[in-house]
Design a protein that fits this description.
Length: about 290
């Protein structure tokens, strides 16, 4: 009984359930924002399950391809410790992905295409994308933002102006965070030969590029109010989010090489969360 419990724990840890749960919730948020209201139970359930299982598959693939690095850095993880075999992990990765795609098929062809793209990006990033620097940052950022579009497609409106704006704002903000993260990870990225902006062009260039992405996301976040897609409640909440995003961007420009990047990364994440709240409030009050 103890062995079975341990195996369940090990497989669950490979899924990174909190991350996968967050992706599932992001799909439902996309549905709420697109509909400007509560989505039907079928679309909400299938959307959540698709996001959860596609993300879970990507997480397992990530550990599968990272097993050598983890054997040195995190040897107690299920794969380096050999509590789960490589073959078993690979089967699990494909199984979770197939379940996710199956759920997307029940939502329609557009959702199936988006789910397959989401899954493919996750696998490619885990396999070869991490070392590509800016391209790898883009893969991660698309994976963070695409659940919102998937949610819009699930309720029949994949090209809704608000959800497309939400996708762009989320992608750009996360690009800023990923480029900034490359500054913090320079020592490890040097060993792994990762072509980050910070390593190729220096900390100051990376800081400025990160700030550019963040400021662009702030500008785009005003479009739903300017064009009348969302109302005054959205404006009130998104203004707070924009201040939270702009503040670390300004610090990166002014301080250049003398920035505390770990704090910057956290501040950007807080701003992104506040932006998420703003779009939810805007969707529910418009």
């Amino acid at each position: 009984m103890g062995d079975i419990t341990q195996r369940i724990r090990d497989h669950t840890s490979l899924l990174r359930p909190f991350n996968s749960f967050a992706i599932g919730i992001a799909v439902i948020v996309g549905e709420v924002v697109t509909l400007r209201g509560i989505p039907p139970p079928k679309e909400a359930t299938l959307g959540f399950l698709t996001g959860f299982f596609i993300s879970s598959s990507s997480m397992v693939f990530n550990d599968y391809f990272d097993v050598e690095a983890d054997s040195m850095n995190i040897p107690k993880r299920p794969l380096p410790s050999k509590r789960i075999s490589m073959k078993e992990a690979l089967v699990a990765a494909f199984l979770w992905g197939i379940i996710g795609v199956f759920c997307s098929i029940l939502l329609g062809p557009i959702n199936t295409l988006i789910a397959l793209l989401f899954w493919l990006i996750g696998v490619i990033y885990s396999w070869v994308g991490k070392a590509t620097g800016l391209l790898g940052n883009l893969m991660v950022s698309v994976s963070v933002a695409i659940p919102y579009v998937f949610g819009g497609a699930a309720v029949g409106r994949p090209s809704d102006y608000v959800i497309i704006t939400f996708f762009a704002v989320s992608l750009l903000a996360n690009m800023g965070r990923e480029v900034a993260k490359g500054i913090m990870d320079m020592k490890g990225d040097t060993i792994r030969s990762v072509k980050t902006v910070a390593l190729q062009y220096g900390v100051e260039a990376a800081s400025r590029l990160s700030a550019l992405f963040l400021f662009t996301s702030v500008v785009l976040s005003w479009l739903p109010y300017i064009y009348g897609w969302l109302g005054i409640y959205y404006l009130a909440f998104v203004a707070v989010a924009d201040v939270a995003i702009a503040y670390p961007a300004i610090k990166m420009i002014l301080r250049g090489n003398h920035i505390k990047i770990r704090r910057i990364k956290t501040e950007i994440l807080v701003g992104m969360f506040l932006g998420l709240i703003a779009f939810i409030v805007g969707g529910l009050t418009s």
